Amino acid sequence: MSPSYLSDYAPLLIHILAAMIVAGALLSLSVLVGYRRPSREKSEAYECGIHPTGDAREPFSVKFYLVAILFILFDVEAIFLYPWAYVFRDLNPGKSLAGFYEMLLYIVILLAGYIYLWRKGALDWNR
User: Domain spans of the chain?
Assistant: First the structure.
């Protein structure tokens, strides 16, 4: 490695090192100076100001997981629209129409998947 290669990254390394030193110093200072008075209330689980009821290890319904997976699936697919929208204006006039139709096909496939899930009852909460 050449010296100029390392000198290019020196400010970044100094910044990271300084951040680690400051974070370590603040954590150490908190441990040394901090006021600790353990009590029964402090060791209980905090649930938005409401007293905890029941066991925290209760099983969840599969519906919650299904909704979470579907949300992630459609959210990731929607994220793919952003790069296309960013580049769409810069496309050549001949390619912009083809790019539009490709994205229209992509959205139609997304809608077909959404309609399929809807008809299968995957989005029906009372089922």
Answer: 62-120
The DSSP string of 15-83 is: HHHHHHHHHHHHHHHHHHH------TTTTSPPBTTBPP-S-TTPPPPHHHHHHHHHHHHHHHHHHTHHH
Q: Tens digit of pLDDT per residue, the chain (127 long)?
A: 566 777 888 899 999 999 999 999 999 999 999 888 888 877 777 767 676 676 667 777 778 888 888 889 888 888 988 888 888 777 777 777 888 888 899 999 989 988 998 898 887 877 6
> How far is the C-alpha of 119 from the C-alpha of 123, rounded, in Å?
9
